[in-house]
Amino acid sequence: QVQLVESGGGLVQAGGSLRLSCAASGRIFFINAMGWYRQGPGKQRELVAVITRGGSTNYADSVKGRFTISRDNAKNTVYLQMNSLKPEDTAVYYCNAVAGFKMDDYWGQGTQVTVSS
After folding, report:
1. DSSP letter at 29?
2. Average pLDDT of 66-85?
3. What's the CA gap between 18 and 46, in Å, rounded?
4. Do 100 and 39 form a contact (C-beta atoms < 8 A)?
5. What SS3 class is residue 75?
6. What gap in Å lies between CA 49 and CA 95, rounded to an integer?
7. Which of 5-19, 21-35, 60-74, 79-93 has the lowest mean pLDDT?
8. What is the mean pLDDT of the chain?
9. By the 8 A CB rule, do 4 and 21 touch?
10. SS3 call for 87
11. Residue 29 contacts by C-beta under 8 Å, 6 or more apart in sequence?
12. CA-to-CA distance for 101 and 90, rounded, in angstroms?
């Protein structure tokens, strides 16, 4: 089992920045991709950004140029630097990891990000 713990959410004004962190712990044999998803009020969960173990990244169009995903493999931690935040970025942000030989999905408990206008 892999446990994911997010931190760094909060309330920020439009144009501001936040940095989310997600640390994996537990019986970690191999973590492949790690990523961030979000679910806004009344919306479905959507991909924000993902990074492979090798460092390849992919972003949702809505965050390209504003958000940066990175990871520290030695610490089993993934980060999301969010700049130029907009009210529409308001959501619960969830950390995701694909781990193990079976490529199981693991999720964090979520952290609230609120951007005021």
Report:
1. S
2. 96
3. 19
4. no
5. helix
6. 10
7. 21-35
8. 95
9. no
10. helix
11. 99, 100, 101
12. 34
How much of the chain exceeds pLDDT 90, in percent?
Answer: 88
* Count of helices and strands (H, E) across the chain: 0, 11
Amino acid identity for residue 74 in this structure: A
pLDDT of 27 > 90? The answer is no
Q: What is the mean pLDDT of residues 94-102?
A: 92
The length of the chain in residues reads 117
Tell me, what DSSP letter sits at residue 96?
E
> Which residues are paired to 30 by β-bridges?
none
Task: Please name which of 4, 23, 8, 109 lies closest in space to residue 72, comparing C-alpha atoms.
Answer: 23
Enumerate residues 6+ apart whose C-beta is below 8 A from 112: 9, 10, 91, 92, 93
Has residue 2 got a pLDDT over 80?
A: yes
